[in-house]
Amino acid sequence: MDFFVDFFHNKVYYILSNTKYIVIRGVLMNEVSKQLKKGVIEILVLKILSLENLYGYQIIQLLDEKSEGTFKMKEGTLYPILYRLEDSKLIESYWEAGTEKRGVPRKYYRITEAGRQQLLDMQQEWYVMADSINLILRMEGV
After folding, report:
1. At what angle do helices 41-51 and 75-87 cross, to 10 degrees?
2. What is the dihedral of CA 49, 40, 85, 73, to 10 degrees?
3. Which of 24, 69, 117, 120 is deepest in the core (most CB within 10 A)?
4. In a structure prediction context, what are the per-residue pLDDT tens digits for the chain, which is 142 residues long?
């Protein structure tokens, strides 16, 4: 039987299946957890872009930093999301010359007015759903 030791929290996790597990902020997360994260990436990208225009790598860095590693992703994961948001007219892109020595142009993304409205709608839905989930998770008997 495989196991994982979390020395920080003084816990031992026994792995009872062939499911892949990763550790994020001291919590053992499986493939189901990764699927849950995929469902919220769009709202997080819209939120970040509502604060500032950014290029892809900056978005990846902010998601990782602000989530304390929970939303660590590769460019190959982010760009299809950006393309989908752009196709839906929720964000738009533009090119800007680089400011470093090389001066390589970068593709920046900004949220549109439709994207801002969608973000508000998604946030309201998120709060209702999270509250409902928490009500059930806090149940103590039926």
Report:
1. 80
2. 80
3. 24
4. 555 555 555 555 555 555 555 555 555 666 556 677 777 999 999 999 999 999 999 999 999 999 988 888 889 989 999 999 999 999 999 999 877 777 889 999 999 999 999 999 999 999 999 999 999 999 998 7
Predicted TM-score (pTM) of the model is: 0.75
Burial class (CB in 10 A: 0-12, 13-18, 19+), 90: buried
Burial of 91 (0-12, 13-18, 19+ CB in 10 A): buried
Q: What is the DSSP secondary-structure string of 1-37?
A: -EEEEETTTTEEEEE-SS--EEEETTEEEEHHHHHHH
Provide the CATH number for the domain around residue 75. 1.10.10.10
Cα-flanking dihedrals φ and ψ of residue 95, to 5°?
A: -100, 140
Structural domains counted in the chain: 2
- Residues 58, 128, single domain; the answer is yes
Q: Tell me: do 13 and 44 sit in the same domain.
A: no
Domain-located, residue 62: yes
**Helix or strand holding residue 96 (H, E):** strand 91-96
